[in-house]
Specification:
Layout lengths: L1 H11 L22 H12 L8 E4 L1 H10 L9 E7 L12 E6 L3 H11 L5 E6 L3 H13 L8 E6 L3 H9 L5 E5 L6
Parallel strand pairs: 1-2, 2-3, 4-5, 4-6
Length: 186
């Protein structure tokens, strides 16, 4: 969705044909040693004769990867980063042509807004996947929502196979809201 937004915004600002080359590094799901080196070799070969005007890095791993490897590919285009939660920006000095923005994600504010919109809520359903990154969000939710547990029933649907998750969500009790975190792997 974010890449679609970037493309539509960029295209709205010009009558020229802009070409985009989205790549998904998938470091969250493929964190084993060697994956980064394979991606470096693959992207170097794929784009060796391509000249870029701008590079978008979405997420902290994409930013780290891009800054680390762009010089060896002669990718000297400016880098714009986004999709990085406040407080998780890689601790490094960036060149002047690497700019971007972080966002704030507050599970409590999200739940409070849901409760304002649905004041009769009795059940809060937390959905997360089975990947290690997904599990960090389940832990964040459990910690963040401790102050709400006395008045709300929390249901955690974490790491379920997709058919089971769909069945569970389809059969939720009345007055339920769903807070959907990340779901990289079922």
């Amino acid at each position: 969705i974010l890449t679609d937004s970037i493309q539509s915004t960029m295209n709205a600002g010009t009558e020229e044909h802009l070409e985009f080359f989205p790549e998904y590094l998938d470091f969250v799901r493929f964190s084993e040693p060697g994956h980064e080196a394979r991606m470096v070799d693959f992207l170097r070969g794929k784009y060796e004769s391509t000249r870029f005007e701008l590079i978008f890095a979405i997420g902290p791993e994409a930013l780290r990867f891009t800054v680390k490897h762009r010089a060896e590919w002669s990718l000297l285009a400016p880098v714009v980063f986004t999709g990085i939660r406040e407080g998780t920006l890689p601790a490094t000095e960036f060149p002047a042509d690497v700019v971007g923005t972080t966002f704030q994600l507050d599970p409590v504010k999200t739940l409070d807004l849901a409760l304002q919109l649905q004041p009769d809520t009795q059940h809060v359903v937390i959905v997360t996947g089975a990947a290690p990154f997904d599990k960090t969000w389940e832990a964040t939710a459990r910690e963040s929502y401790q102050g709400h547990e006395k008045r709300l029933d929390f249901i955690y649907l974490s790491g379920l196979p997709m058919p089971d998750l769909l069945r569970e969500v389809a059969n939720l009790p009345e007055r339920s809201v769903v807070v959907y975190f990340t779901f990289f792997t079922d």
